[in-house]
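Researcher: Good morning. I'm working through a list of sequences from a screen, and I'd like to move beyond sequence-only analysis. For each chain I'm collecting a predicted structure so we can compare shapes side by side. This is the next one on the list. No need for commentary yet; just the structure.
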Amino acid sequence: MTATLTKKSGKGRTDGVVSELAAYFHVKPGHQEELRAACQRFVEELRRQDPAETIKTGLRDTRHVIFDEGKMLLWATTFETEWDPYVDDAILTVGFEHFADWMQHTVEWDVLFAWVEEAGGLEALSKNTDNPDFEENVRKSTAGLKKILQDGQEQAASYFNPLGSLTMPQVVKAQKLDAAFQEVLDDPTAEEALAHPALKPLLAQAAA
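Model: Good morning. Structure tokens for this chain:
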């Protein structure tokens, strides 16, 4: 059965605000260890990014799985924005060079490289503050990349996300509010204020 493309999730499934993408690639013979190292560099680059900028792309999580005795690669990611801006913003935030670092070790890179050349070359798609046309180049060129990703994508048979009703900004805000409230609870001078009946629901949540 062919998956229907939607504005929200592309070819994947959605639970609440979160959508899934699972794309499969064929690993070039003898490239398994180089690919593994490149996948790790990709994650390290994400960790170096400003968390606020990463959250703005819609990213929830990403992982690479090498399987079938090193012959296949699964790239799985979940996101909470719409499909088109998610791919665009991921490249704008991270830079396509970091995607190319691991993709070049797959058989599908031959097709991807043709798309890169058509888009003006890797330099045009790489994150470079000295390139004033970077964002324009990315946004007008990613249709080809999206098609390549969807050609290798399989829709999940089912998908469940226990925090699917919450966006990452909401989760982060809740964490900050909890930390701030715990600080208030630990302050002896706040005891009188916390005794006010209006704060009873907050105290009940803190005790839960």
